[in-house]
Amino acid sequence: MLLDATESQLVLVDYQERLMPAIFEGQAALANAIRLAQIAQMVEVPVWGTEQNPTRLGPNDAALRALCDRTLSKMHFSAAADGLGAWLRPPARPQGGNARSMPRHLQKARAQEQQGAERPSIVIAGCEAHVCLLQTALELIEEEFEVWVVTDACSSRTERSRDAAFDRLAGAGAELVTTEMVAFEWLRSCEHSAFKDMLALVK
Q1: Residue 120 above 90 pLDDT?
Q2: SS3 assignment, position 177
């Protein structure tokens, strides 16, 4: 199973200026998050940011924040609890016409279209991995999104906490990936128009 850019959304959790200096390998995680957002823009993947209690912890890193389509201010540790899921799902479409007159397989397709996300693959990364990233990802799994955790763009104050989060997320059904895995799967081919620009970011 490979990531498809047309079915993906990118969520970047709490890369806040006051938090990042305390994070294990925080600058590397932030640099990969910025790369992910830049590559997402190249392939027209929506980019969402979140900020935990920004009045206390400050905004996200300015370079990363500028790459986000929108940033959700939250007080719950899980962004899903503060409404992220509503951002990730398209508004329900009016039905129009008599669905019962349609063939059964088309009725099913329409029902799925109205109920499900048009971009069900959520590529997510953030800090702290064992708190806000973990809780957000687990709740998105419960909401029946496909969750892909970008491990080299995540961290916590300690390496042990970060790794424990990855173990738990994998056990819950999340796919664990890296920034380069995401980049090359979104593009799929060296003939993609953004390939050279992407390669310059990851090499």
Answers
A1: yes
A2: strand
- The length of the chain in residues reads 203
Q: Is the pLDDT of residue 160 over 70?
A: yes
Cβ proximity of 61 and 30 under 8 Å? yes
Residue range 165-176, pLDDT digits in tens: 999 999 999 999
* Range 22-28 contact pairs with CB under 8 angstroms and sequence separation of 24 or more: 22/157, 23/127, 23/128, 23/155, 23/156, 23/157, 24/155, 24/156, 24/157, 24/158, 24/159, 24/162, 25/155, 26/127, 26/155, 28/152, 28/155
Res 114: pLDDT:
47
CA atoms within a 13 Å half-sphere pointing along the CA-CB vector of 188: 8
Tokens linked to 5: 């850019």
Closest Cα partner for 139 from 79, 90, 86?
79
| pTM (predicted TM-score) | 0.88
Phi, psi torsion values for 50, nearest 5 degrees: -135, 150
**Left if phi > 0, otherwise alpha if psi is -120 to 50, otherwise beta: which for 13?**
beta
